[in-house]
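Notebook, p. 212. Picked up where the previous page left off. The plan for this session was modest: take the two constructs that came back from the sequencing core last week, fold each one, and keep the raw output in the notebook itself so nobody has to go hunting through shared drives later. Recording the first one now, exactly as returned: residue sequence, then the structure token string.
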Amino acid sequence: MEAHAATSLHRSPLPGDARARATALVPAVSRALILLERLAGAREPMGLARLAQDLGLPKSSVHGLCSTLVSFGYLRRQSDGTFLIGPRVMSLAQAFVSGTDVAQEFNALWADGEPEETVVLSVLSGGDALYIGVRNSARPLGLAFNVGMRLPAYLSGSGKAMLSLLAPEDVRRLYPEGLSTRLTKKGPKDLDSLLKELATTRRRGYSVDEEAVREGVCSFGAPVFDATGRAVAGIAVCINKALFGVAKGSRYRQLALDVASALSARLGAQPAQLAAARRGTS
């Protein structure tokens, strides 16, 4: 699981150019949001002492923040006094999805029937792949995806499809402490190996996850583009490793590319734009 690197509140990065506007931020709201992000990133229960250390705040202040967030349902308190993300966070994820055109168009793809295999849609959220569309297959996979679920983008098929279109320096900025989260023994070991894999992904136009998220589960991913040729999401077709077969899953690789192209077309992307974007010339 994620290394317990301390990230004090005063050193936490702010998105975009928000650092320049830091004096306009409401401190209590900022602390609550950073606390939620810390718990979401840890993917495991955390106690008051560890949260206080990581956020660089007094334990009494963290206690007040956690109590408030628990009362609103954004945190859950465990019997041992540790905290987890609460169910109300899902309502925010659902609200985000409902206002995102790409998620609506993804769901519209399946109006005439469900896909044979599990197909997921995600967007980049920091260094994570945030799932905003899921079509779980009836075929047993050993892993159920849900809207609002987050995984390190460098482990997932859809995440690597999106990362492959970023400049290497931007990928490094997403993971200043390296690739600290591992879910299996597979997947890139460090940033250099990740960047090498992303270069291959960009060149061939699709990504491959071989059991980095769950043993026995593999996926092929591809980026989704909008009418401007900008990559706005990634899709992945997830299959049992046994389906790779002698053709190394070529059928499912093509399915991932076809779904990404169909969804991109629904967002207004033209074939010439898709080709240019995948070559990095748009």
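Okay, moving on. Second construct, recorded in the same format:
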Amino acid sequence: MASFLGESIEPWQNEQDMQTDENIQKFFKIRISTIIPNRPITFDLYIMINGRYVHYLRGGESITAEKIASLERADVFYVPESQRSDYKQYVFQRLNEDELAVQTKAQILRESSLTLAEEIFENPDIERALNDSKELVANFIDFMEAHPEGMAHLISLSSHDFYTYNHSLDVGIYSLGLGQVVGYAKEDLLELGRGALFHDIGKRNVAVEIICKKGPLNDAEWAQMQKHPQYGLRILTEHNCSEAMKACCFEHHESFLGNGYPQQLSGPEIHPMARIVAITDTYDALTTKRSYNQPMSPSAALEFMSTKLAPRYDRDLLKAMQSVLFKMKEAS
């Protein structure tokens, strides 16, 4: 019998079966919070103990809310890669279940998307990552259409801890909310959402020591970090991405004042979607906890942007962002 976070666990497999599964199967992570308590699951759940996958729950079984609460410190379960489609179908069914509250659906959608966003940024296969992003962003757009109030719940759930994939997913969510407020059509929202999701893809080519540095960057490190839009443009160009997606990546650090980077574009020259990502990227950075600064509250961040930083951004979009924030307040 194994011990997991102080809880005794009796895997249903024997030791030989565990080794066989571990050697043959590949696994992907899912967030514990995407599992609805007391509902049968349609896939197998594993946990990791001492670097090994241990079979925790079989498909067809359920888990209580108390058990889920006791496992939350672990944050994730693991599902065999061969059952990925079963997990996707499980999420799809929950999102279309009338009995579930919209806020619960929003949490399931965001948390299930967060693991996919993490995979996108860790996956060396850019082409697959780009293809996966279509489904991810389309899920958010469909949710927005089915539940007009749902975007407010998604925004209110946004993380305030910094990881590249957390940040990129949250920037994507904020950008979809802002795009919706200003009247973007569905096909444009798809491009905007994917562009926002990949706006920092060029950071794959920046030294990890710089990305993860616990403190402000020095001049040399900052010069290297400022190259990430060029790196990202190169990646997206190699994979024949749309001009809108490439603009979100290449121009999101431009400023209406003409003193941004890398091209020092002035207001009218900046792509409309890049203008949105510039606002949502800054907003998320200001409200995110870093090792060297404390996050601002959402209202304080928007006030700071609307006063101290206002000349850098599209004035109309900055006003529209206030509407997005208002929705978030209503949902929280």
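Notes on construct two before I forget. Residues 102-122 form the longest helix (21 residues).
Flagging for discussion at group meeting.
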